[in-house]
Amino acid sequence: MNRREFLETVAAAAAVPTLATQAPPNEWGSPVFDLHFHLRPEPARNFAHFDGAGITKANLLTRGPAVDRVKAMEAAAPGRFTWFNSYDVTKLDAEQVLTQAAKDGAQGFGELKFHVAADGPELRRIYALAADLKLPLLIHFQEVDHFPGEGTWATGYARSFDKVLEAHPKTIFIGHADAFWANVSADYKNQAAYPTGPIVRGGVTDRWLADHPNLFGDISANSGNNALSRDAAFTAAFLERHQDKLIFGSDCACADGHGGGVSQGNNPAASRMAGKCVARETLGLLKRTTTPAIFEKIVWRNVHKVLKLEA
Ligand SMILES: [Zn+2]
Ligand SMILES: [Zn+2]
């Protein structure tokens, strides 16, 4: 943490002297559920983002032991959170650890972000476990490094994932990240993390959302925002076509829900989001592009169906 980040952290903490116990006012014309929020160590920093961006409820993404931190959040603001847990899928005890997380209250698995093949044995056993436990899972697909040596994540999506969807019909998959979203365009060949320009119709993500009832899309991060910012005519039709399959998430790391601090982990390829809150950018984009009824499905109702919660 540098001096500027330190001062911003202090400022964010000072702005939230007590923990919020109520959802913020209805700034977006609909309550908003953030499917993709990585739990921050200090409770106040989480609330600074939810309240700053107008987020009503959030799904806390955690990795490894987390139940105590999740319980502390739930105690501070009852009814405002759900919880997904993740664990290294290459470890022998992955199924055991994730089963225990489900017993402890995890409502899904994720974010699953690992250097393995999307159709490999490490993830396939987690797909089977999720079906057995009737829990959804959230996967990060990425084929292009953001910086040298980063490596790739859940690889082979465009080549192989329809076979996975067919082989695991009882598993609810929520797709996310660069390769998932770049493949809304049929001309994507892993040429960039975040391709730009008009969408070539018929990309695999667009087709698979239509063809596979067990595939959903998480529109978080620069990847989701970028895909929906390329081609206005495509975006309006895409949101209408998949209005029951898309779920809002932020994956935003900004300090305050207004773009303070660092929003996309200093990822150079995502510099278009520098100084911006990804949650706000994507909520604004959705609001400008689609109807109030579809907006409400994407930011609120759909996630409740997938998590089997009352909206
Ligand atoms: Zn991710
Ligand atoms: Zn933000």
Q: How is the largest sheet built, in terms of strand order?
A: 1-2-3-4-5-6-7-8
Largest sheet: 8 strands, parallel
What is the first-to-last residue Cα distance?
Answer: 39 Å
Q: What average pLDDT do the residues reach?
A: 93
Rg to the nearest angstrom? 18 Å
The helix tally amounts to 12
Overall strand count = 8
Bound molecules: zinc ion
Unreliable stretches (pLDDT < 50, length at least 5) are: 1-18
Q: Structural class, from helix and strand content?
A: alpha/beta
Overall spatial form: globular
**Percent in helix:** 40-55%
> What is the chain-wise order of helices and strands?
HEHEHEHEHEHEHHEHHEHH
As a percent range, the share of strand residues is 5-15%
Outline the secondary-structure elements:
Blueprint: H1 3-15, E1 33-38, H2 43-53, E2 57-63, H3 67-76, E3 81-86, H4 94-103, E4 108-112, H5 121-133, E5 137-140, H6 157-167, E6 173-176, H7 178-182, H8 204-211, E7 215-218, H9 221-228, H10 232-241, E8 246-247, H11 278-289, H12 292-306
Parallel strand pairs: 1-2, 2-3, 3-4, 4-5, 5-6, 6-7, 7-8
Helix pairs in contact: 4-5, 9-11
Bound molecules: zinc ion (2 copies).
Note the main attributes of this structure.
single chain; 311 residues; alpha/beta; eight-stranded parallel sheet; 12 helices; 8 strands; disordered N terminus; binds zinc ion
Please characterize this protein's 3D structure:
With 311 residues, this protein is α/β, with parallel strands linked by helices. 41% of the residues lie in helices and 12% in strands. The chain is built from twelve helices and eight strands. It has helices at residues 3-15, 43-53, 67-76, 94-103, 121-133, 157-167, 178-182, 204-211, 221-228, 232-241, 278-289, 292-306; strands at 33-38, 57-63, 81-86, 108-112, 137-140, 173-176, 215-218, 246-247. It has an eight-stranded parallel β-sheet with strand order 1-2-3-4-5-6-7-8. Strand 2 (57-63), helix 3 and strand 3 (81-86) form a beta-alpha-beta unit. Helix 4 (94-103) packs parallel to helix 5 and helix 9 (221-228) runs parallel beside helix 11. The protein is globular, with a radius of gyration of 18 Å.
